[in-house]
Amino acid sequence: MIINYFRTFVISLITASTLVTNFVVESLAQINPDTTLPNNSSVRLEGNTSIIEAGTIQGGNLFHSFKEFNIENNNEAFFNNAANIQNIITRVTGQSASSINGVIKANGETNLFLINPNGIIFGENASLQIGGSFIGSTANAIQFGNLGAFSATNPKVPTLLTINPSALLFSQNQASSIESNSVAPSGNNLSKEFTALGLRVPDGKSLLLVGGDVNINNGGLYAFGGRVELGGLASSGTIALKKDGDNFSLSFSDGLNKSDVSLSNNAKVDVRAGNGGGIAINARDLVLTGISEVLAGIVSGGTDNSRAGNIDINAAGTVNIQNSDIVNYTLSNTKAQGGDVNIKTNTLRLEDGGRVIANTHGRGQGGNLKIDATSKVELSGLNTVNGLYISSLVVQSVTKEATGNAGSLTINTPELRVLNGAEISGSTDSAGRGGDLIVNANKIEVIGTSSDDYVNVSQISTQAESTAKGAAGNLIIKTDELLVQNGGEVSASTFGAGTGGNLKIDATSLVELSGQSTVDSRRSGLYVQQNILGATGSAGSMTINTPVLRVFDGALVSASTYGAGTGGDLTVDAGIIEVVGTSSTGYSSSITTQAFSTGAAGDLIIHTDKLLAQNGGFVSASTFSAGTGGNLKMDVTSLVELKGVNSFDSRFASGLFVIQSTEGARGNAGNLTLHTDRLLVQDEATIAARSLGTGTAGNLTISANSINLDKNAVFTADTRSNKTDITQATININSRELILRRASRITTNATGRDVIGGDININTSVFGALENSNITANSASARGGNINIKTQGLFRSLNSAITASGATSEQNGNVNIVTILDPSRGLVEIPINLVDPSGLILARCSPRNSSTPNSFTVTGRSGLPISPEDLLQDVNTIGSWIRSENSHRGKIEQPIQAQIDKTRNQIVEASGLKIDDRGQVYLVASTQNAQSQYLPSQSHFCHN
């Protein structure tokens, strides 16, 4: 028993001794010099501090080389360099990564380089206490111009490396990563607003981390007024290293295979100061998540001559910003200039409240924000968990005290998508001007609203906010295709005293707007607006140039004013314009200028080949209050087709309108002028100039070769205003052909007290009012308007009327109809040698059966001879009656109707008129296929 106990005791002592010995060896091995230098590095331990001395000096460079370089928690590594050393160049030649969880120190303002191809990990307690810049890299070697390299993987003796390092050399297939988790306190920032937590270099110096992959997790990187750069390579290559004063920077040549950079879990890169401060990130993919931040700009202490540095991001793959920010800004009380934010990438994606911002809070100019994405830019959604963060790209002049102008925002990409409440914005809240927003993209989509409790609209916009005195910036979009759907908006607006910006859209293929938000009733649209009651700033103008403009399902194109400021003009130049349908809640698709308060609305000017407004869609210039309504001016080279009514409320027709729309409104409505080749109005569609309040109604002036109104179609000019010092509610029509069918009407109505009816002036070659179609100029309380018709041919069915009625028969207006015959077109010289008519009968026509015998009837210009049993007819009946078996048969209201042999073809009542190329007028049963009715083919009239 005694022997056994003794053996056990000895073994225990030996084990304990071994453990102690191993611990000491391991502790000493944390920083372990190698023997590759002419004058090797030395390390001695004093307490928790490893003092690093000796090494090889070449000029102003001090070289150290280690097998391992690690610093445990609460320990320090102190480079005890001489004061004249400019750069400490440190390499790790062993096979393990450097784990740094303590403090790195150096004397003076020496720059410190640490390269370890196996990787570098900064723990949560890692910190830098050096006087110069810090460059940490997993490169294989540091190049010194053409003098040679200091290599960690091929540790030859350095020779005459006396100049500053010039490049980082990566020869491995996959470079190791750099990771920083440091949250160690490193002192207050310059304005003493917060304590910096993480790796920090002295103000104005540089902090560069160059991997493989670089990952910043819950850590901070600080170089106030200096420079932070992150990046690296995923394979072999060379990264140039440049020095400008106290700042180092990296230069990545084209074609390098870059590695990834990530910031996560409240990670922060911060260079904000009173002057300078730049950030550069070079990566394949850059990912920011978990409320991480990249911050540059001017804070308290900046002078009037100060300027912030830029944030430059170059990513070959994707920049993905999730609930995190990239911001460059200037604070108040300074005239310092803001820095720019430049992002070059394949794809930029902002999600869950991710933001990129360049703004100014002071007197200085804000920085510019520029995005160059070779594939796509996509913004989506917002985040309300930690406050309201909208996924956004923003340039802004912030706070009402600021006077500096915001910078511009430029986006160049093949595809831009703004989804689910995200926004791209240039704005001003101050006396400074808002930033211009310029978008160049092949395809742009602005779709939807957010689905959270706080509903935000997907938008591309410039605006002057309610506190702003400065003007909003302009919004310029150049694209092949612009789609705005489900509540999305593209707008330039003002909410205060500042003037709104202009909106200009140039699309080479299509602009399409459709629908409303599925969350609320916000309509998809294009807007230039003076957007709030009481606002005094005037709205900007809108210009749209595109081959096709489609406004569907309740969408809206609007230039409006809601305050004292004037509304902007809206100009559309398009090949085809379609304004069709209603939204799911009944909003009509529309293109409009509007005044809702005391400010005057702008004009609406349209140039197009073809305009279609159907199923409730309309085009209008309106006023709803004291402001004057705008004019509607339209030049349409081919066709205007108006059809149908709003499917939710039939009171709202498709059409063209200049309207003063409410009973209490005092503003005068504008005029409507239309020039086109063909105008088709049908199925209750309407063209109207109307005043429902005390303001005067506008006038309608329509010029067209062919005008057809069918199925309750309406031209109307209505007024309640009793102003007689201005011409109002007048309809002027100039055409070659004007046909009204099936209860269509042209009317002026005066419904107010002592209000004189408007006039109707028609100048047309051919005029027909058929099938209960009417022309009226009425007044309910005063003299009716006058109707003046000048035509070469007038046809009116028995149930159609032309009336000008007043409050009493003595107050009826005048109806003046003048028929003008042009001798040069109406008279034909008869040839001397008459032709035998029998020779003109087609011999190949087969005889009809006995029930339908052939016949040939010669008539004069006044139609068929009058039968003794016929009613007396007007001697001016139009001649050249034409039969057509394809026409609808009309009822012949004559006493001998019952005696007509039913087996014979009946004469069909005419329902239309046509003019041939010689200017002659022909009454026809149908306007379709008119040429075949006048010059019938054999197959049409010959029957077997």
Q: What is the number of helices?
A: 4
Proportion of residues in β-strands: 35-45%
Question: What is the mean pLDDT?
Answer: 83
- Ends apart, CA distance between termini: 139 Å
CATH superfamily of the domain at 31-258, please?
Single-stranded right-handed beta-helix, Pectin lyase-like
CATH architecture of the domain at 31-258: 3 Solenoid
Look at the helices and sheets and give the structural class.
Answer: mainly beta
Domain Filamentous haemagglutinin FhaB/tRNA nuclease CdiA-like TPS: 33-145
Pfam families: TPS
Protein name: Filamentous haemagglutinin FhaB/tRNA nuclease CdiA-like TPS domain-containing protein
Produce a short descriptive summary.
By secondary structure, this protein is mostly beta strands.
Describe the fold and architecture.
Helices cover 4% and strands 45% of the residues. With 944 residues, the protein is mainly β. The chain has a domain at 31-258: 3 Solenoid (Pectate Lyase C-like). The strands form seven sheets. It has a 32-stranded mixed beta sheet that branches. The chain has a 20-stranded parallel beta sheet, with no helix packed on it. A hairpin with a 5-residue loop joins β14 (141-143) and β15. The protein starts with a helix and ends with a helix. Mean pLDDT is 83; it is low at 1-29, 823-832, 842-850, 859-907 and 927-944.
